[in-house]
Amino acid sequence: MAGVAGGNDFQWCFSQVKGAIDEDVAEADIISTVEFNYSGDLLATGDKGGRVVIFQHEQESKNRPHLRGEYNVYSTFQSHEPEFDYLKSLEIEEKINKIRWLPQQNAAHFLLSTNDKTIKLWKISERDKRADGYNLKDEDGRLRDPFRITSLRVPVLMPMDLMVEASPRRIFANAHTYHINSISVNSDHETYLSADDLRINLWHLEITDRSFNIVDIKPANMEELTEVITAAECHPHQCNVFVYSSSKGTIRLCDMRAAALCDRHSKFFEEPEDPSSRSFFSEIISSISDVKFSHSGRYMMTRDYLSVKVWDLNMENRPVETYQVHEYLRSKLCSLYENDCIFDKFECCWNGSDSAIMTGSYNNFFRMFDRNTRRDITLEASRESSKPRATLKPRKVSTGGKRKKDEISVDSLDFNKKILHTAWHPKDNVIAVAATNNLYIFQDKIN
Amino acid sequence: MLGRGVKRKWSCLEELEAEELPNALVIEEKKQDGEEDRGEQRSKSNMSHLQQRQLVLSLCLEKLQHYQAGMELSLRRSVLLINTLRQIQEEMRCDGSDVRLHSVNPDMCLLRDDFREDESVTCPGCAEGDRESPSLSPPLSPEMPFQEANISLDLQKSLPNTVSNTFSDAGNAIGYLSDLALDDIFEDIDTSMYETSDLPPAWGAGSLWPVSVSFWPDEDAKSRSSAGTLQSCLLDLNELDHIMEILVKS
């Protein structure tokens, strides 16, 4: 697979944009998660309104090979509804925090979606035929009087318009006191974990009335609380291994074979703090917002406020690679703290071959890093360049000194336009980028 | 005293300070001679740091207080904010001891507690307070520069009002703490308070916050006047902690 950009042979181009063009953005339409399925044929988004929209890859035809990055709506359904916790007198938002696909086992597709408290397993299945010719029931579906049926008719399957149904198969509720930030399907395809601020639970996909609490960092006295779990993920190949990241910038790797309760970690990943860059915001910016294993399972990537780091699972004392996402914001931390942006949770993702990584930034910018060439690129998700197959122009933020042509100054960045969620097709160079209420799909340019 | 709404520049404060330096301190500093320059440099370079600290502190309090009613707080955000507060608190605590000892004599550092005890026995609330306030107070209570003793007494009288105001509005209280060069903060200060003749009630409330204890251990009026505002603000903080605890408790 080619590198991320910069080379002469490789460029990203616009493919599609989904969502309303209106300047007025309805809160409910803001995309809160994006996820490709294992084959990359389906792309799911969740929004703040509790809806899940699934896009399906348009089948390529020989005449139109450029359709690689074309996705069309496959199914839309309301996954979660707003609720009210009467015991705590608190609203429970319908916002979809995470979507995770299950590996496909049969014709149907399954996915897990979660809001702050409840995880649901959805089945997405197609129906394009219906049984016709029953004579046991009336037109309106009522059973007919058996004495009036004089002959047995064998129904026939008649073709009909394709219908995609989404049906809730399991609801995993009442197991989280705090906000669920992560769900991750295990490589055994039978269990999954769900993490909230203080606890991680392990579930069986078939069993909804109980789960195992595998991590609990809640102190007996909440006044002593200084750390929360920010993300968690199962290892892609070893079903006994999972990691979780914390607000203190550390990652713990746990082995479920060691003990049923993984309060004691097997590995502890932490980079020593650089005393020269210490400030009031040190802890806030070191808080990890996302952790993702590489497809190979050898590495993991963590995103903190200003950087993305790649860790070798065999080396705990420092990351093997560190990429600055928007270092120019270091001098702006005070205002980012003031306007609360410093608490934004940026996610990150690997490409299919683990050779490149992608993460978001402000001003609808997103960044890609090529791990081999160490090249990086800043691209923008914007409607202005959204002509079909238009090449994306690399963006540059001027850092001090004179602003060159085509550069944007740090002060003119729009901090309301942030790209928190991105997804990379597992096999192809097709990416999905969520920019507020719009979903952009880009693909590499074939020359 | 500077007029209402007149901006006080740091240099101006320094001059005031210099005038106010009590003899005891001058002698002490003369003894330390070479160290003095370094200390001065340090205080200047610390200025922006202290300003930022005040800003971060006030924003922290504001953020913790202005959560959306009915919505569950983000625990991550709250924990990060509270840790930042703790960090600032720790730093202030260190500063306090630093300032008290002028960070010069390691022996004094070791003897600190005994030293303090001795002082309070021999000279209750005179040299001690004066010794501390000049270097401590500018960043903490720039709105109340060092004046003649009688003016500071006026300030002391005015404090009950300030305190009661700050309880209802933490953001306002922060105005009294910070040196943000915001003119409206000065506008907020009600000068009529200075005319009140009632004597302040007991100062006991301040002891709730550990910082205040290490900061202002004496009975001196001046240091109390600056401590009072901070305490009231930090009291708010204590309450907030309590509220937070209730909110996040499962």
Automatic annotation (TrEMBL), chain A:
One MF term in the entry's GO annotations: protein phosphatase regulator activity
Stretches for region Disordered: 381-404
Xref: SMART domains: WD40
SUPFAM superfamilies given in the database record: WD40 repeat-like
InterPro entries per record: PP2A_PR55 (IPR000009), PP2A_PR55_CS (IPR018067), WD40/YVTN_repeat-like_dom_sf (IPR015943), WD40_repeat_dom_sf (IPR036322), WD40_rpt (IPR001680)
Homology family: Belongs to the phosphatase 2A regulatory subunit B family.
Protein name (Swiss-Prot/TrEMBL): Serine/threonine-protein phosphatase 2A 55 kDa regulatory subunit B
Organism name: Crenichthys baileyi (White River springfish)
GN (gene name): PPP2R2D
Automatic annotation (TrEMBL), chain B:
Compositional bias segments (type: Basic and acidic residues): 27-43
PANTHER family, A to Z: CELL DIVISION CYCLE ASSOCIATED PROTEIN 4/SERTA DOMAIN-CONTAINING PROTEIN 2, SERTA DOMAIN-CONTAINING PROTEIN
Region (Disordered) location: 26-49
SERTA domain ranges (all copies): 49-96
Protein name as catalogued: SERTA domain-containing protein
Source taxonomy: Eukaryota, Metazoa, Chordata, Craniata, Vertebrata
GO cellular component: nucleus
Source species: Crenichthys baileyi
Top-rank lineage group of the source organism: Eukaryota
